[in-house]
Known about the structure:
Strand content: 15-25%
CATH superfamily: Alpha/Beta hydrolase fold, catalytic domain
Radius of gyration: 15 Å
Oligomer: single chain
Number of helices: 5
Structural class: alpha/beta
Order of helices and strands: EEHEEEEEHEHEEHEH
Helix content: 25-40%
Strand order of the largest sheet: 1-3-2-8-9-10-11
CATH architecture: 3-Layer(aba) Sandwich
Amino acid sequence: MSPSSFIHRYLPGTDLTRHPLLLLHGTGGNEDDLIPVGEMIDPAASILSPRGKVMESGMPRFFRRLAEGVFDYPDVIARTHELADFVAEQTTAHGMKKPIAVGFSNGANIAAAMLYLRPEVLAGAVLIRAMLPLPTGPEHALAGLPVMIISGRVDPILPLDNAKRLAEALRQHGAMVDHRVLETGHGMTRNDVDLARGFIAGING
Length: 205
């Protein structure tokens, strides 16, 4: 199928000098879920928000998993390239700058996989409740790419040590990583939004 076969929302921004936001929802979300979050993070930026194509018990996801926290790695790789092709296609079609990925949970994990496999399509990333997406490290030098990882200290789904290892893997390949740990669980909070807003404002200068 064509990369453009992703169901998605595209909302043009009022300031095209800013990097668009690539919004990537968590399990059970859709292309509308994170739009209010994106508008809070950067109300002037364009928004590209695709829906994951994998269904798990009727809930959309961006890739298959075998169990909680156990990923189907070949599917992660295939879906990551498919999503990256879509992002590149949409960036050209809309005449946009490279987007900054803002992902939550499953969306954060495929954003992390894009950093591993296809970093050239992104200008940076905010990974909210992310974990290591693949058993091997990034395939490409990340050359100062700005990445924020926001973890929950009492997240029952994602061990903090796993997120720390993700941060270190990205750093070792040249990314500029800011890893924040909030006193919270797995759900997204206003603190996540505030941190993302400040981080992305810094990228846009």
